Amino acid sequence: MDADVDLRKALKAFINSNPALRMDASQDTHAERSEIFRTLHNLHSLIQSIKNPLGSKDNPARICRDLLDCEDKLIDGIYWIDPNLGCMSDALKVTCKFSKGGRTCLQPAAPAKLEFDLSRVQLTFIHLLSSEARQVVKVHCLNTPIWGGRAKPPGSLHLPSPSTPLMDNPPLRFLSWNGREIWGQGSSHPAVLDDCQIQDGRWRQTRFVFFTRNTASLPITIILGLPNPEEGALYRLEVGPVCFL
């Protein structure tokens, strides 16, 4: 009711401030005034939905952190976002991790594919609205070295270095979203948890953890240098979500 009163006051003030409208006000039909009132009401509703998003398909937020700013008691789960605040037909269904500060997590199109179902425009807005990004990519392997051939303790955590060659196999190279190759050095290089060097007849995995403040680097789009399956290499890819904060 208060909103209706405010809108009527706004309409009256708008007409009184405009001489042309004031002269013709007595000639306005009831239908015309109703149409103006509906337009103002819709504008008011739009402004309120932007100020107080619900994370629903009809009232999406820009990113998950906006929902956290509006409401403290939210649980992790599936929500809708519209980073460019354009037409709601391109709103995205994402996983919001409020327990991690309001991370916006995009799931890959398939677990073994480095593909994400969203437009480049929407992802660009997510990059601009975020200050950091994280993604984990795993390679499950059977008697197939993935990262390097030198024997290391199982589960050893290391960062690649140009001064320490990666032994029998060439290092993997990762193509970032912004077209750069990632390996070895730089703010976007992955931490590596490598068990695939252990060849004992059991399935193991090499885990690549990407964390960067250059948000346009993620998601990873291509992995170069994986072993050749035609030469007997046995492995499968598991692509994790890319999460922005």
UniProtKB/TrEMBL annotation:
It comes from Eptatretus burgeri (Inshore hagfish). Keywords: Collagen, Secreted. PROSITE patterns: NC1_FIB (PS51461). This is Fibrillar collagen NC1 domain-containing protein. The lineage of its organism: Eukaryota, Metazoa, Chordata, Craniata, Vertebrata. Its main location: secreted. Residues 34-245 form the Fibrillar collagen NC1 domain. It is found in: Secreted. Pfam families: COLFI.
